[in-house]
Amino acid sequence: MQKIRQKIGISKYFLNLNKSVSYSKSKQFKLKVIFGGLFILVLLITIWSGFDKQKTSQFKNTNSIPPLVMTDGNPYIRALMRTISTSEAKDTNPYTLLYGGKHFADLSRHPNQCITIVSGPHQGECSTAAGRYQILTSTWQEKVKQYHSKRSKSLTENSDNFDPQSQDEVVYAWLIDRHVWGADIADLLKQGKLNRVLQLLSGTWTSLGYGTENNSITPMLSRVYQQALSEELDRVNRSSHY
């Protein structure tokens, strides 16, 4: 009888020991999961913080938003033009940029090169978008005819001219045309209604946040615009001192 009790006692001991070991292992596993989760969370926060800093610093250098060739005009519209071109044609030389990333050399006219679209809702079609504002050939021909006489004598001499000055002048005249947009864009910008303006323009420039072809710059448009506007207002202030 005593031996049976001893055996039962030993069995209970090993059973309790087993439970204790299992509990210990379970506790260790839970701790590993918790610490592993915390490590992953810290890692993700660090990566995101670095990415956010990269995005923030991306536009600190004024060279990242090339100035306009055109030297006059409303600073709010000028800042908007630089914002559009940053979203549509992010490049050190956006005036000669073709859709797809290649450059063209002949600025005497719109290049009219139809390049195949490889992704997005229009995949398989082709686009003639070119220049700083990625304007299609048909749109350029229409707008240059509509606005060339209102801006520059050089445009009247060669209405097909697609040089940087012409690109800026035609787009500027287009943006200040209240009849086209049904609103005074300069006034809206002065009121701080950038999102309203971007919405108005998104049917023309589809990367501005309300279209179908957003890109990596789209979420940063407000930041881009604010930097460009600050530079344009500084330019006005500097010129007023002379």
Outline the structure in words.
58% of the residues lie in helices and 2% in strands. Strands 1-2 form a two-stranded antiparallel ribbon. Helix 3 (137-151) crosses helix 5. The protein is mainly α and 242 residues long. It has two domains: 1-58; 62-240, Lysozyme, CATH 1.10.530.10. It contains nine helices and two strands, in the order H-H-E-E-H-H-H-H-H-H-H. It has helices at 2-58, 75-88, 137-151, 153-157, 164-175, 178-181, 185-190, 194-201, 221-240; strands at 115-116, 126-127. The N and C termini lie far apart (113 Å).
Helices and strands, with pairings:
Layout: H1 2-58, H2 75-88, E1 115-116, E2 126-127, H3 137-151, H4 153-157, H5 164-175, H6 178-181, H7 185-190, H8 194-201, H9 221-240
Helix pairs in contact: 2-9, 3-5
Number of strands: 2
Order of helices and strands: HHEEHHHHHHH
Calculate Rg over CA atoms: 31 Å
Total number of helices:
9
Low-confidence stretches: 47-62
| Class from secondary-structure proportions | mainly alpha
Tally of distinct domains: 2
Identify the CATH class of the largest domain: Mainly Alpha
Shape: globular
Helix coverage percent: 55-70%
- Strand order, sheet with most strands: 1-2
Mean pLDDT across every amino acid position: 82
Proportion of residues in β-strands: under 5%
- Amino- and carboxy-terminal Cα gap: 113 Å
CATH topology of the largest domain: Lysozyme
Instruction: Note the quaternary state here.
Output: single chain
CATH architecture of the largest domain: Orthogonal Bundle
Largest sheet: 2 strands, antiparallel
